[in-house]
Specification:
The protein is mainly alpha-helical. The protein has a three-stranded mixed β-sheet with strand order 3-5-4. Strands 1-2 form a two-stranded antiparallel sheet. It is globular and about 40 Å long. The N and C termini lie far apart (63 Å).
Length: 266
């Protein structure tokens, strides 16, 4: 038993050494899963959500969101996803959106009541795509594998395809059962995605200053229900606004030099 445990620890140590990477912002990451496996997980989770949740059939609203998503994903490296991104607008009151490995984006109609214009919605979509660019899902799954399940157990679970395993996959990808209630990614990932999304929306020709207005709106929408920051997995809107403003000069410069100026109409 001791020999097996020692062997497992040796394997884990080797993986830790060989699988260390850096996020787009230079933070050290642990990523144990190949990108094609994460893409398969994203497809599985997305298909599950499409079968379980109501999809919007409103052409104008769908075209509006699609226009913004297309403008954003145009500026995503092919190394992240080399294909056509799939967007689905879910007809649900949740104030939320998500993006998954494998080129999948979901937006809930409830978000359109808070993101008041194309620039603010671009900030959200850019943020969610930022999670994919930084491979936060891979990092989350890798950490969970080593801390809790073990690599072999995790791999066996991911090879299966049933409801229980879909929940595990969704949790690893940052979805979980409480989408729109308690967002799953931690503070570091959220702050990183904010800044990646800010840069991305500016490159795509959306006004980056509207990202601040978005979080003013989000703060109002949250009301008095919000937890203190030290009890939450997410930064407070005030913290996010400060971080965005600190990085705004560089984003504005990219916005000014952007060759695209999207005109997406709701």
């Amino acid at each position: 038993m001791f020999a097996k445990s020692l062997f497992a620890m040796s394997i884990a140590a080797s993986l830790l050494v060989s699988s260390c990477a850096e996020s787009p912002l230079g933070r050290k990451q642990l990523k144990l899963f190949p990108s094609d496996q994460l893409a398969g997980m994203g497809q599985q989770a997305f298909n599950s959500m499409k079968s379980e949740q109501k999809i919007s059939t409103q052409p104008v609203k769908n075209a509006y969101v699609q226009c913004i998503a297309d403008a954003i994903t145009k500026h995503v490296s092919k190394d992240v996803f080399d294909g056509d991104w799939e967007l689905v607008v879910f007809d649900e009151p949740q104030v939320n959106a998500f993006a998954l490995p494998g080129g999948k984006i979901g937006v809930y109609t409830g978000l359109l009541d808070v993101a008041e214009n194309q620039h603010q919605l671009a900030a959200v979509i850019g943020h969610e795509v930022g999670h994919v660019i930084a491979e936060h899902g891979n990092e989350r799954m890798s950490s969970s594998s080593l801390i809790g399940l073990g690599l072999e157990v995790t791999n066996q679970v991911l090879k299966a395809n049933d409801v229980a395993n879909n929940q595990l996959i969704m949790a690893g990808l940052g979805l979980g059962a409480q989408v729109g209630v308690q967002l799953p990614f931690g503070r570091t990932h959220e702050s990183e995605a904010d800044l990646i999304g800010l840069d991305l929306m500016a490159q795509a020709g959306f006004n980056p200053t509207e990202s601040v207005e978005l979080w003013v709106n989000m703060d109002k929408a949250g009301g008095e229900k919000r937890q203190p920051e030290w009890l939450s997995t997410h930064p407070l809107p005030s913290t996010r606004i400060s971080q965005l403003n600190a990085n705004m000069p560089a984003a504005k410069a990219k916005y000014v030099s952007a060759t695209d100026r999207p005109n997406c109409k709701s």
